[in-house]
């Protein structure tokens, strides 16, 4: 056992665990977060996706001892009680059916929009193909990402205008 210190959603957490323990288990069992989900345990489905230093990472196959830097989970996206534009778009487009994959879908989409603020339909489909949805709501996921991109670009443009004015 070793003391592992992780920075999750802006807070520091120290846990006494085996260094090979998957990050997902630490986030759910020790930190108490429910956003990342156990899906396949093989890093293939994407339900466990979190963001580490700007990259989408499958937490079910990531040893906690290998994590360096800031971890963001679904719970870390909302700020001051306001949903992130992706979370709001998911609601507006009525994306979830069973909801199991949604955390991984949203976190994967967040990285896409951080890297490509105005993705094409092809870019969205290609990027999101790494995260599986058992209910097959892919068209709603695509619509939600486009809605969020528009909202985020509009917010960025208005904050640029406010700074200039």
Kindly describe this structure.
A hairpin with a 2-residue loop joins strand 1 and strand 2 (11-17). Helix 2 crosses helix 5. By secondary structure, the protein is of the alpha+beta class. The longest helix has 27 residues, at 138-164. It is globular. It contains five helices and five strands, in the order ββαβββαααα. Strands 2-1-5-3-4 form a five-stranded mixed beta sheet, with helices on both faces.
Give a topology summary.
Blueprint: E1 2-8, E2 11-17, H1 23-30, E3 49-52, E4 55-58, E5 70-72, H2 85-92, H3 102-115, H4 121-128, H5 138-164
Parallel strand pairs: 1-5
Antiparallel strand pairs: 1-2, 3-4, 3-5
Helix pairs in contact: 2-5
Shape: globular
In angstroms, what separates the terminal alpha carbons? Answer: 56 Å
Broad structural category: alpha+beta
**What would the average pLDDT be, to the nearest integer?**
94
Structure characteristics:
165 residues; alpha+beta; 5-stranded mixed sheet; 39% helix; globular
Short description:
By secondary structure, the protein is an alpha+beta fold.
């Amino acid at each position: 056992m070793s003391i592992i210190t992780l920075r999750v959603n802006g807070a520091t957490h120290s846990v006494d665990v085996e260094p090979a323990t998957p990050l997902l288990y630490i986030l759910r069992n020790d930190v108490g977060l429910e956003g990342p989900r156990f899906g396949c345990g093989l890093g293939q489905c994407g339900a466990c996706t979190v963001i580490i230093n700007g990259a989408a990472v499958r937490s079910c196959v990531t040893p906690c001892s290998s994590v360096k830097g800031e971890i963001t989970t679904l719970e870390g996206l909302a700020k001051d009680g306001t949903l992130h534009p992706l979370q709001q778009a998911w609601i507006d487009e009525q994306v979830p059916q069973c909801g199991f994959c949604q955390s991984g879908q949203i976190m994967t989409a967040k990285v896409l929009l951080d890297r490509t603020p105005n993705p094409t339909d092809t870019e969205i489909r290609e990027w999101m193909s790494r995260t599986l949805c058992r209910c097959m709501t892919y068209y709603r996921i695509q619509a939600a990402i486009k809605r969020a991109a528009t909202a985020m670009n509009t917010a960025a443009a208005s904050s640029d205008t406010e700074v200039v004015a």
